[in-house]
Amino acid sequence: MIVINLETLQYFQYTAKYKNITKAAKHFYISQSTLSRHIIALENELGVKLFERNNKNIELTEAGKVFYKECDSFIKHMETVIMNVQSADKGSSGILRITSPGNLCQVLSDSLAIMKEKYPSINLIVESYNFDEIPCSIQYDIYNVGFTYDFASFGYEDLLSTPIGTDYFSLAVSSKLFKNPTKETIAEIVKSLPLILPSHIEPPFLKLILHELQNSAGVKKINTNYVNTTESVMLEASLGLGYGIVPTSLTKAKSGNENISYINLDDFSAKCAIVMLYKKSNTSELVNSFIDIVNGLCTEKNL
Questions:
Q1: What would you measure as the largest C-alpha separation in the chain, in angstroms?
Q2: Is 206 domain-assigned?
Q3: Alpha helices in 173-282 (DSSP H)
Q4: Rounded to whole angstroms, how far apart are CA atoms 7 and 25?
Q5: Residue pLDDT, tens place only, 37-71
Q6: HSE on the CB side for 233, CA within 13 Å?
Q7: 98 - beta bridge partners?
């Protein structure tokens, strides 16, 4: 039987995030040798190689990428279990975990305020999560309710999706290459840089955006590069390796990133729906109450 403790999983998780043993060790205030021993022991326990090592950085192997995704979900699930136990011990009326990539719309903020007023002793936890990973986090009970975009929730048959708003898109590009870009700059950006796309998502609006970018730049073809995650899209854009297309509401959440500038594409016809996700099998009174509050506000605001 394979035995792995939570501490070792967290060491692996942050080593994968930093791609650097030294930085991960500093995060936990332990020595590099101690962290390395834990990683090697984990690889031996699993019987697979999790990292490819070189002189400076380390990269996840294919097996490591699979384990990292599952590991992240497992750690969050265990944190939820611990919080549930602690809440019960403190006499809380219950725990409600909500996730969103940012404050996507006013309905979310208003609903949280009403929920807290209705259940004063509730342990209400709101955390940020990558928008494309939110459906999976709901499916595996890491969160009770999630807010994301409709194109990220396709294919999850055990989840219910309720539209609560609409969002347009923005072009993200390195501020070092284009300090104060405008819509007049789009042609130069498209002609000089590739469009960076996540390989695991091909939203229905993509062809429409490509067509509109072609028209704006006066080109017949858009050069594209693919990366593994949406985080990698933003990283490569910030480094000047290409440009990305993101929902405009996300640009507000990432406004502190001085390495990226945004061009609002609200004159493009492409847009997406902001949706609330939860499990069909949900029976929680707290979850149902929160869903009713959100739906009530949407009806009131004619969303």
A1: 64
A2: yes
A3: 186-192, 206-217, 230-238, 248-253
A4: 13
A5: 999 999 998 999 999 887 667 889 999 888 888 88
A6: 20
A7: 126, 145
Domain hosting 137: range is 92-165+274-300
Residues 102-153 have pLDDT tens digits of 776 778 889 999 998 988 888 888 888 888 888 988 887 888 999 999 888 8
Which letter does DSSP use for residue 150 in this model?
G
Beta strands 123-128 and 95-100 are parallel
For residue 219 the two structure tokens come to 């080109």
What is the number of structural domains in the chain? Answer: 3
| Residue 300, H or E segment | helix 285-300
Based on the fold, state whether residues 262 and 282 are members of the same structural domain.
Answer: no
Residue 211 tokens, joined:
């067509």
Tokens of 70: 């599952």
pTM of the model: 0.67
Q: What is the DSSP letter of 193?
A: S
Same domain, 221 and 281: no
